[in-house]
């Protein structure tokens, strides 16, 4: 391994005219629990999206376990935002179908078993779920 889980050097990310991160650098060692704290708009969510490869920096370098974020890294990490973006009429089954199309290596059989273990039925709609159930749905599919 590299000795670090995360390394960002000189990262810049802007959305339109608003800077989310400007000259951001951090190194997080392996096998450590690290809190990421800051006020609204400080760039915390952008930082996590960069680590997952959900967005790319405008400048600078981002590494997770010595690799550029993307699908190969995402097998080794997990990201569960506090507000998952699901439409109210989407079902648990829909999330599995979405994951099969977009996530290389997605194991639908395993996801279905996890969902059953958590009491999530395939036809359940996101709009009728509690926040906790929506978190579970995001975690399995």
UniProtKB/TrEMBL annotation:
This protein's UniProt keywords: ATP-binding, Nucleotide-binding
Q: Which residues form the ABC transporter domain?
A: 21-122
Q: Does the keyword Endoplasmic reticulum apply?
A: no
GO MF term list: ATP binding; ATP hydrolysis activity
Coiled-coil portions: none
Superkingdom per UniProt: Bacteria
Q: Which InterPro entries match?
A: ABC_transporter-like_ATP-bd (IPR003439), P-loop_NTPase (IPR027417)
Q: Name one Pfam family in it.
A: ABC_tran
* Listed name of the protein: ABC transporter domain-containing protein
Q: What's the source species for this entry?
A: Candidatus Reconcilbacillus cellulovorans
Q: Which classification does the entry list for the species? A: Bacteria, Bacillati, Bacillota, Bacilli, Bacillales
């Amino acid at each position: 391994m590299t000795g670090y889980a995360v390394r960002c050097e000189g990262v810049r990310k802007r959305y339109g005219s608003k800077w989310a991160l400007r000259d951001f650098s951090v190194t997080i060692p392996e096998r450590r629990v690290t809190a990421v704290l800051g006020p609204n708009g400080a760039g915390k969510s952008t930082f996590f999206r960069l680590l997952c490869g959900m967005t790319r920096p405008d400048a600078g370098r981002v590494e997770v376990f010595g690799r550029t974020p993307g699908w190969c890294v995402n097998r080794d990490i997990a990201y569960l935002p506090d507000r998952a973006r699901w439409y109210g009429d989407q079902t648990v089954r829909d999330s599995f179908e979405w994951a099969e199309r977009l996530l290389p290596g997605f194991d639908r059989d395993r996801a279905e078993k996890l969902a059953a273990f958590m009491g999530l039925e395939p036809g359940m709609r996101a709009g009728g779920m509690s926040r906790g159930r929506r978190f579970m749905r995001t975690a399995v599919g």
